[in-house]
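Saturday, quiet lab. Running sequence design on the C-alpha cells for the scaffold JK sent over.
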C-alpha cells in the first residue's frame, strides 16, 4: 500500500513537471491548450518537487510527510483551478491523496501526544530512581523465582530501570473475528511501575486503528481511534482499567526480570513450579500466578483481569502462554507469546505477539 501511494505521488508529480517544461518550451505538449508563463511554470516545478518530497518522506516514515503532502496538494489544486480546462481531472487525484493525508495528520498529533506521555513517564522514573533505596537487600523470593532470575542472566545486584521494546503480531476483537496485523512500541518505567504502549493495527487496506494504553501513577488509560481521528474506545482512571493496567504490567515483567525484586512486588510459593506475585501501588493491589518449566523459564501467567471497559467490565481469567525464549542484550526472555481469555464459552485467543527489539537501561 505504501509503495502504491508513493508511485501515485510520483506520477502525479511528473504530470506537474510537464507544466514547467511547457512554460520553458522544452518539448511539445498538445494536452495544454493554453500558454503557460515562466513564473507560472516555476510554480508547476515547485509542485513537482513537493509531491516528490512527499513520496520520499512518506515511504521512509518521516513524521512531517503529511504536512508536506497537504502543502503540495494545496499548490497543485490552485494550479489545476488556474488551468481548469486542461488539468481538471487532477482534482480527483488530489482528493484521493487528501483521504490518505488527513489520517496522516491525525497520526502526527497522536504520536506527538504519546511522545509527551513518554517524556512524563521518563521524568517520573528519574524522580523515583533518585528517591529509591536498595530494594533487594533481604528480599525473600520463592526458589523457582530465584532460579528464574539466575537463569535469565539477572545477577543479584542487577537492576533495570527503563525498558523500550517493539512488537509485531496479530489480534482480533472477537472470538470468531478476522485476524489483523499490528506493530507496537512500548516504554516501561520500573522503579515507579508504569508503561506506555502505542500500536497501529491494520484493519483493511488503508484503514487502520491507532491505540495507546498507559499506566502512570497507578492510573490506567486506553484510547483507540479509527485512522487516528475517530474515537472508538476511551477508558480512563476507573477501577477496571486501573487494575487491568497494573495486571498487564505484572505479567509483562517477564521481559525485565529484575523487577521481581522491586518493593512493590511480593511473592508466595505455590508448589515447586509456580509462584504468586502481588503488585501493590497505593491502595490498589493485583495478583497473578507465574508457571515455570524445569529450566525455570516462565512459560505461563494467569490472573483474573477486567475485560471490557466501563459498566461492561467484569473479571475474567486472563492467560499468557510463552511459546519460545531467546537471549536479548544478555537476558533470556520469552520472545513469542499468546494471550487468551479463558471464558465460560471457551477460550478466546485474541492476540499473538513477537518481540522484535528490546533495550534496557
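Result came back. Writing it out in full:
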Amino acid at each position: 500500500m505504501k509503495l502504491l501511494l508513493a508511485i501515485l505521488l510520483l506520477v502525479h508529480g511528473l504530470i506537474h513537471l510537464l507544466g514547467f517544461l511547457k512554460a520553458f518550451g522544452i518539448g511539445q505538449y498538445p494536452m495544454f491548450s493554453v500558454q503557460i508563463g515562466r513564473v507560472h511554470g516555476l510554480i508547476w516545478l515547485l509542485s513537482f518537487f513537493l509531491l516528490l518530497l512527499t513520496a520520499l518522506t512518506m515511504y521512509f516514515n518521516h513524521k512531517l510527510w503529511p504536512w508536506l503532502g497537504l502543502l503540495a496538494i494545496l499548490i497543485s489544486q490552485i494550479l489545476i483551478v488556474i488551468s481548469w480546462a486542461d488539468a481538471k481531472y487532477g482534482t480527483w487525484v488530489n482528493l484521493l491523496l487528501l483521504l490518505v493525508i488527513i489520517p496522516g495528520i491525525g497520526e502526527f498529533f497522536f504520536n506527538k501526544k504519546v511522545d509527551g506521555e513518554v517524556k512524563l513517564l521518563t521524568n517520573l522514573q528519574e524522580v523515583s530512581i533518585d528517591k529509591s533505596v536498595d530494594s533487594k537487600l533481604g528480599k525473600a523470593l520463592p526458589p523457582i523465582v530465584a532460579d528464574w532470575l539466575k537463569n535469565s542472566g539477572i545477577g543479584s545486584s542487577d537492576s533495570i530501570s527503563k525498558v523500550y521494546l517493539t512488537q509485531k503480531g496479530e489480534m482480533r476483537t472477537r472470538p470468531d473475528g478476522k485476524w489483523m496485523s499490528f506493530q507496537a512500541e512500548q516504554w516501561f518505567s520500573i522503579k515507579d511501575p508504569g508503561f506506555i504502549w502505542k500500536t497501529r493495527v491494520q484493519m483493511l487496506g488503508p484503514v487502520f486503528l491507532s491505540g495507546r494504553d498507559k499506566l502512570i501513577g497507578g492510573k490506567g488509560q486506553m484510547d483507540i481511534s479509527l485512522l487516528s481521528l475517530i474515537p472508538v474506545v476511551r477508558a480512563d482512571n476507573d477501577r477496571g482499567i486501573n487494575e487491568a493496567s497494573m495486571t498487564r504490567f505484572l505479567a509483562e515483567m517477564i521481559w525485565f526480570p529484575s523487577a521481581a525484586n522491586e518493593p512493590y512486588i511480593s511473592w508466595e510459593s505455590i508448589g515447586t513450579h509456580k509462584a504468586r506475585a502481588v503488585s501493590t501501588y497505593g491502595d490498589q493491589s493485583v495478583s497473578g500466578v507465574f508457571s515455570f518449566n524445569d529450566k525455570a523459564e516462565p512459560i505461563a501467567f494467569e490472573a483474573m483481569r477486567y475485560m471490557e471497559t466501563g459498566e461492561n467490565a467484569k473479571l475474567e481469567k486472563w492467560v499468557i502462554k510463552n511459546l519460545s525464549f531467546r537471549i536479548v542484550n544478555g537476558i533470556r526472555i520469552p520472545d513469542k507469546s499468546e494471550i487468551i481469555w479463558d471464558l465460560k464459552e471457551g477460550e478466546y485467543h485474541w492476540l499473538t505477539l513477537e518481540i522484535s527489539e528490546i533495550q534496557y537501561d
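Notes for JK: The chain has two domains: 2-103, 144-360. The mean pLDDT is 92. Ask whether to fix the surface positions before the next round.
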